[in-house]
Amino acid sequence: MKRDVVPVQIRGLLPANSGVALFLGNDEKVFVIQVEQSMGSVIHMAMRGAAKDRPLTHDMIGHVFQGFGITIERVVITELRNATYYARLILKQENELGSKLVELDARPSDCLALAAAAKRPVYVAAALFEDVEDMSEVLQRLNEQREQSGEDPE
């Protein structure tokens, strides 16, 4: 893989006024993407492997991919434009004719839900990672506060 991307993980989720603050990063830096409340719940359930009575939309998409021999290779958060993050979902299909990579434009929240459920890697474009504000200290303080109150830090 080229060096123009940086590997990251979901570091935390926190309810916010506008939905959910999703903390994404690595040991070097953490930044925040705001997602809708429902997407925050879906991502949190996927991270925990929570059992559901019925498949949610992202579960169904995963089943469709599986039925067609498609795997999620990775997710790349590519840019921030007009206060909106953009992402690419990289898929791989293998069959008797060979393999094919397909790159789709998708919302970061959808990409992160699918990646969390499939336990696939997430990357951020290096140029974007350099530009985003480092929220590591904020996440650390929030986690410390939640630990002191006895809450689950996720």
Report on this model:
A seven-stranded mixed beta sheet has the order 3-2-1-7-4-5-6. It has a single domain (5-149), classed as Bifunctional nuclease domain (Roll), CATH 3.10.690.10. The chain is built from five helices and seven strands; from the N terminus they run βββααβββαβαα. The protein has helices spanning 37-48, 57-67, 108-118, 126-131, 136-149; strands at 5-16, 19-25, 30-35, 70-81, 84-95, 98-106, 122-125. By secondary structure, the chain is an alpha+beta fold. The two termini are 30 Å apart.
Give structural attributes.
Bifunctional nuclease domain; alpha+beta; seven-stranded mixed beta sheet; 35% helix; 154 residues
Strand arrangement within the widest β-sheet reads 3-2-1-7-4-5-6
Q: Count of DSSP E strands?
A: 7
Average pLDDT, to the nearest integer? 92
Spell the H/E element sequence: EEEHHEEEHEHH
CATH topology value: Bifunctional nuclease domain
Based on the coordinates given, report the CATH architecture: Roll
Largest sheet: 7 strands, mixed
What share of residues is helical? 25-40%
CATH superfamily: Bifunctional nuclease domain
Count of the domains: 1
| Oligomeric status | single chain
Assign the structural class, choosing from mainly alpha, mainly beta, alpha/beta, alpha+beta, or little secondary structure: alpha+beta
Low-pLDDT sequence parts: none
**What is the 3D form?**
globular
Number of helices: 5
**The CATH C-level class name:** Alpha Beta
Proportion of β residues? Answer: 35-45%
**How widely separated are the two ends?**
30 Å
Rg of Cα set? 16 Å
